Amino acid sequence: MSIESSEQAALVLKEIGVDSAGIACMASKMRHLNVKLSRLECRMANIIKQEMLSLGGDAAVARGTVDCSIPHTDVVLMGTEKQLMLAADKLKVQPFGLRRIGEKLKESITFINNRSLDVKCGSLVLKLSDRIHIMGILNVTPDSFSDGGSYVDPVHALERALVMESEGADIIDIGGESTRPGAMPVSEEEELKRVLPVIDIVAKKVDIPVSIDTYKANVAKQAVERGASIINDISGFRFDPEMAAAASGLNCPVVLMHTRGTPADMQLDTTYSSLMDEVIDFLKASIAIAEEAGVDSDKIIVDPGIGFGKSVQGNLHLIKNLDELKVLGKPVLVGTSRKSFIGALADAELHDRLEGTLATSMFALIKGADIIRAHDVKEVKRTLDITDAILRCN
User: Fold this and answer.
1) Is position 381 annotated as part of the catalytic site?
2) Verdict on whether the full-model pTM lies above 0.90
3) In this structure, are 173 and 102 located in the same domain?
4) Which of 194, 339, 353, 381 is an active site residue?
5) Residue 131 sits in a domain of what CATH number?
6) For the segment 20-52, what is each residue's pLDDT rounded down to a tens digit?
7) Would 350 be classed as within a structural domain?
């Protein structure tokens, strides 16, 4: 059977009649973990392997590690949660920088089990630990890839926002600059002209949080002052050096996304030596930027950036391995809605990508997504509510 958490393991043991002491002892043994450590010196890797073997686990290393004939190696730790936690403690007394490796290993395992999922947005709380949440997309641009020009008028935008709320959206994400592949940036003045009138009317009429999709600090600041309560930054606080400080001062949740390059050029290079490692390292650095600026750690959400500087296969790899982002200890947002990789896979035009959106959103949920960003709110919500119910069923 598939055991996804220590709590699930404990429930299974309880159902077959194991006493409480036995449950406490055995629950962690039912959950096996694989943890990858990147580019370690061979002397470090050899010590780690010996420590894991001494605990009944193991560690996979590259050929040439034992005799240090290669400069470095990735290491995959394999064992139970208990074995990995014990290994982390043993590494803390070892030389060659292994103390820091042990501390980070213990932190990562703790994050996997105890991510902080409830996010406060002003007077509202996103109870992400209770169920999957849906972020409805509301682009107020003339050139967005899917709905460009449809909701530029604030009245039409409000109508769409109210429909999405009635269909079950938990957040309305308003964007005033297209970030489709090849899109050119717009001025701050133009972006403000597009989003502020819409935020003014939508934030007053909906009973769910409004998010501002921007990478510009002043746009975020004015949007939050007018009623938005989440900042969704596709650059992970990289494009505008003032964004982290602005977000800290606004004291609202932030979404930090991975991207390579800007929308104008991001698809020119989609080759990675290790996609998951680069995405995780990028997001770790963005989290550090946010926290060092004073952003509350419990208000940070991460997004792997499906379609932003990734090939078709890269997008599939990200979704398949999404659970690796749990080591960051943050809620995970994923947006695959109507994107071009779905069209490429299904030979489907823009408005014929619902099935692909549902399939990728469902798989993202299974692999650990907490928020799904979507155009087709009703269909996505129905699909994910059923998937979520199955995952949470004992």
Assistant:
1) no
2) no
3) no
4) 339
5) 3.20.20.20
6) 887 777 666 565 777 888 889 999 999 999 999
7) yes
**Rounded to whole angstroms, what are the CA distances from 210 to 40, 72, 125, 169, 349?**
43, 46, 13, 11, 29
339 carries an active-site annotation: yes
Rounded CA separation 135/137 (Å): 6
CA torsion through residues 202, 307, 379, 349, sign: positive
Residue 14: burial class (beta carbons within 10 Å; 0-12, 13-18, 19+): middle
* 21 belongs to a structural domain: no
Question: How many beta carbons lie within 10 A of that of residue 312, not counting itself?
Answer: 16
Total structural domains in the chain? Answer: 2
The answer to whether residues 123 and 92 belong to one domain is no
Domain final residue pick, 89, 113, 137: 113
Q: Which of 274, 238, 269 is nearest to 256 (CA)?
A: 238
- Residue 136 sits at φ, ψ, to 5 deg, of -80, 135
Can you say whether residue 231 is alpha, beta or left, with left for phi > 0 and alpha for psi between -120 and 50 degrees? Answer: beta
Catalytic residue among 82, 160, 299, 373: 373
- Does the residue 19 lie in any domain? no
